[in-house]
Design goal:
- The structure holds two protein chains of two kinds.
- Helix content of chain A is 75%, strand content 1%.
- By secondary structure, chain A is an all-alpha fold.
- Chain A has one domain.
- In chain A, strands 1-2 form a two-stranded antiparallel ribbon.
- In chain A, strand 1 and strand 2 form a beta hairpin.
- In chain A, helix 2 packs parallel to helix 4.
- The radius of gyration of chain A is 22 Å and the shape is globular.
- By secondary structure, chain B is mainly alpha-helical.
- Chain B folds into two domains: 63 residues; 77 residues, no CATH class.
- Chain B has five helices and no strands.
- The longest helix of chain B has 23 residues.
- Chain B starts with a helix and ends in a 15-residue tail after the last helix.
- In chain B, 33% of the residues are buried.
- The chains are: A mainly alpha, B mainly alpha.
- At the A-B interface, helix 9, helix 10, helix 17, helix 18 and helix 19 of A face helix 1, helix 2, helix 3, helix 4 and helix 5 of B.
Chain lengths: 496, 153
């Protein structure tokens, strides 16, 4: 066995790493199941903690949260008909009717097992595909890297499906903000107003905390004023483990969901919700009992649940091998790794192969812990659906401040966080998606750097991007990705 | 006409104009035949100009239902909550974490609907205290002690 694989496995399997994964899974399940909380919010809560932890422990915690959040979203969807996360929207279609019929336990059991299998399948994809892809990516030169990052930015289109202009504007605002600080090639100070705090630019984790958490605090406040309540829970959770007959019925939808989710997860921007709806749609079309869908059938839960959990492993593939985030959560993971001086990309496997494999195995453990925690503590977790927001929301607000402050022990970052919070509110008021801005902040620096290095190498000749076969391939893929994003969103809407 | 889109487009156009002005005044530090530091900002300027103009056009000539929940925030607790949040952030370096966070927590708990005095008091003291101990002593984050310097570690 490759010693790096063995080292990675050992690091991810240390008691402290396992404890971290377990805590992350538990937090993820809780965060995912509470309507109004997102996985991103969960990550914001634990982010300040990760700064002081060992990288492997940090990643274990965050991956546990990521995977757990994806599964936890289905609990609220089944019990309350309110998807805890957008990825669980399709699960509510059949999960809630089953719950109403008094089969909440069976529905939740199906969701848990399907999520586990989907996650495990995507772990295998991650384990086998990621190292090969990283090896190929090592051969890339500056024009190829520019086109690759540009391809990564096409993720924006899937968030801009409602309004292309607003989605692209959001990205351009991000690209403008990313130019604040020293330029990546010559080191010239740009747009710093002579303030030394701005020389290092805007840290995108600070921006992320503001963009996601502050608007959520306000929305929850408004939701309370409008009398929206989340305390209603269903009783009657009986046996969770699916019986043999139920497991047989799950084989086909779980196979479709796992394969669809893993594949779509690799593509930038497709994400859990679309993967869940597409696999739900395909499973329904291939089923002999199409009339049962939407009325509470096991297949209607198994397909989307396996798909949205399979997306998590799929999304880690471009993140780890190319440094391209597959979704907002992996974008945040990139930031969390950067804090520890590790930059995801092809060099990660070459320079820190043990760490790269520890990420892969931490993902494996996260799926195992999810299954164990969900099956053993679900009844207790469901009670958390009634967590009082009077305690939760002030705590989140304080953690936003602590999180942004602890990045550099600097209050300037706290004010930047608040600025981005106001920006996020303004963008929501305008129905402008914030994810493109976040992605532009993550990828904008690389985009500029590779663009300028490539043009410098080619003495300003722009044709370099079209004469390099790899670069040309990524540019073509970018075009395909743009069209695919709109097509997939349309399918998702149709199925939903 | 969508007044929100028009307002946003005008704000963005103004922002783009300022950005362009500053880009034009960036120092020139480059090698022959290579893009200088203002190269990428100029691309951004062009993109922002085109897109903000498109938004202005949409706002002026295309009618859309853009209702969002945040619209209702004008008359609610959202603005006072943001003001309290800002006051908390400004006072934090001077008062210190504990002293600034206690009243902030109490007010935010009240905003979110907590009306029981005993819960408000206990929550407002316990939450900041736990977070302070956890982050300052558990994770080594140097949260400011402010006025309580010398009284707490």
């Amino acid at each position: 066995m490759n010693p790096e694989i063995f080292d990675g496995f050992l690091q991810a399997s240390l008691p402290i790493s396992l404890l971290s994964t377990g805590v992350g899974s538990l937090l993820g399940l809780v965060v995912g199941m509470i309507p109004g909380m997102t996985i991103s919010t969960g990550i914001i809560i634990v982010l300040p903690v990760t700064f002081v932890l060992d990288p492997v422990i940090s990643v274990s915690l965050l991956l546990g949260l990521y995977v757990g959040g994806m599964m936890g979203g289905s609990f609220a969807a089944v019990l309350l008909n309110i998807p805890g996360t957008p990825s669980a929207s399709a699960t509510a279609l059949d999960g809630y009717p089953m719950s109403v019929r008094g089969e909440a336990g069976r529905a939740l059991g199906t969701a848990i097992v399907a999520s586990f299998i989907g996650g495990l399948f995507s772990f295998l994809c991650l384990y086998f595909i990621a190292p090969l892809l990283a090896e190929v990516a090592l051969q890339f030169r500056a024009p190829d890297l520019f086109s690759l990052v540009f391809f990564g930015l096409t993720i924006i289109c899937s968030f801009a499906a409602k309004s292309l202009v607003k989605g692209l504007l959001s990205a351009v605002i991000g690209l403008m903000l990313v130019t604040v600080g020293q330029d990546p090639v010559m080191g010239t100070a740009r747009f710093t107003f002579g303030d030394v705090n701005l020389m290092a630019g805007v840290h995108f984790l600070t921006a992320m905390i503001g963009l996601f958490a502050v608007p959520q605090l306000v929305e929850n406040l408004i939701g309370r004023q409008h009398g929206q309540s989340q305390t209603r829970t269903q009783s009657g959770i009986t046996s969770l483990l699916p019986d043999l007959k139920q497991l047989k019925r799950m084989i086909k939808p779980v196979s479709i969901g796992s394969a669809t989710g893993s594949f779509l997860g690799i593509l930038p921007g497709v994400g859990g919700p679309i993967a869940a709806f597409i696999s739900y749609d395909y499973t329904k079309k291939l089923s002999k009992n199409q009339q049962d869908f939407g009325k509470g059938c096991v297949e209607g839960i198994a397909a989307p649940e396996s798909a949205n959990n399979a997306v998590t492993g799929g999304a880690l593939i471009p993140m780890m091998t190319l440094g391209i985030p597959g979704d907002p959560v992996t974008a945040i993971l990139i930031g969390a790794l950067m804090i520890h001086g590790l930059s995801p990309g092809p060099l990660l496997f070459m320079e820190r192969g043990d760490f790269a494999y520890s990420i892969i195995f931490a993902f494996f453990w996260a799926n195992i812990f999810n299954l164990i925690i969900a099956l053993s503590a679900l009844r207790l977790l469901v009670k958390l659906l009634a967590t009082p927001k009077t305690l939760l929301m002030p705590t989140i607000a304080i953690l936003c401040v602590v999180g942004s402050y602890s990045l550099r022990n600097n209050f300037f970052d706290v004010y930047i966080m608040f600025f981005f919070g106001l920006l996020g509110l303004a963008m929501r008021w305008l129905n402008m998606p914030v994810v493109p801005l976040l992605l532009a902040l993550v990828l904008g620096g690389q985009l500029e750097e590779h663009l300028r290095v490539a043009l410098t190498g080619a003495r300003g000749d722009i044709s370099i991007f079209f004469t390099s076969p790899v670069s040309l391939l990524f540019l073509i893929l970018s075009v395909v990705s743009v069209f695919w994003s709109f097509y997939a969103t349309r399918i998702g809407k149709k199925a939903g | 006409m969508s007044s929100r889109n028009v307002t946003a487009a005008l704000v963005l156009l103004a922002f783009t104009a300022v950005y362009a002005y500053m880009t034009a005044h960036l120092p020139e530090r480059t090698l022959p035949n290579t893009p200088d530091p203002s190269f990428f900002p100029w691309i951004n300027t062009a993109l922002a100009l085109v897109l903000a103009s498109a938004l202005l056009f949409q706002g002026l000539f295309i009618k859309k239902n853009d209702h969002t929940q945040l619209e209702d925030s004008n008359n609610g607790l959202a603005l006072p909550a943001l003001a309290v949040f800002l006051a908390f952030l400004i006072s934090l370096p001077y008062l210190g974490f504990i002293l600034a966070t206690i009243p902030f927590t109490a007010v935010f708990m009240w905003f979110y609907g907590e009306r029981r005095k005993i819960v408000l008091i206990i929550g407002a003291v316990v939450i900041p205290a736990i977070l302070y101990v956890l982050f300052r002593h558990g994770f080594g984050v140097m949260l400011p002690r402010g006025l309580l310097s010398g009284l707490i570690t």
